[in-house]
Amino acid sequence: MLKVNGNMKVEDIFQGLKEVANPEDAIHMKAYMKDQFEFLGVKTPIRRQISKIFFKKSHKSTIDWKFINQAWENPYREMQYVVLDYLQLKQTSLASNDLTKVKKLAQTKPWWDTIDFLCRSVGYISLHYPETKKFVLEWSRDEDFWLRRLAIEQQLLQKEETDVQLLEQILVNNLDQTEFFINKAIGWALRDYSKTNPDWVLEFIEKYKDRLSKFSIKEGSKYL
Could you tell me which SUPFAM superfamilies the record lists for this protein (predicted)? Predict the structure, then answer.
């Protein structure tokens, strides 16, 4: 039975997930993620039903970073997904000083599944606190390609609010790459922005076609 009180405790949510875990699903989920992480075997709809109960009962209006960090340390991947759901719920409470905290999450147990959600938090911060954009730009040159992927993706879905100059700088910093996860992210960023400004994307691809991977061009041109 779920134990819920006014405080959101990692161990309580974890126990709730364990009670509905399916070992067969855990095998498939682990295989899908290339055996990178352990899974309880709780699929997304059920996980969100469980975590939502705890999120609603939490009395904290601010972001509970103690909860986030403890949950992120849990060896089962579903607990990192709980954090991502929580950050999405608390997105409007994010502030400029949270950027380094999100960066720490991105560099701990990184894989595309967490990076591609953390980009929403980074995107919100950089959009509402422009002084943080210089740090995101620095990430785009980092040796850690997951951090670079995060920088590339952080303006996804921002449409007319996209900082085009920043987008171009970040993309240019990641040209001439052989890393699949970077070239995929470049293509994704171009494809997404092409829905808002197809002429800019066409011009970018033409300008840098000799330095873009064929995969990035194919992905970025999907809606052109």
Answer: ARM repeat
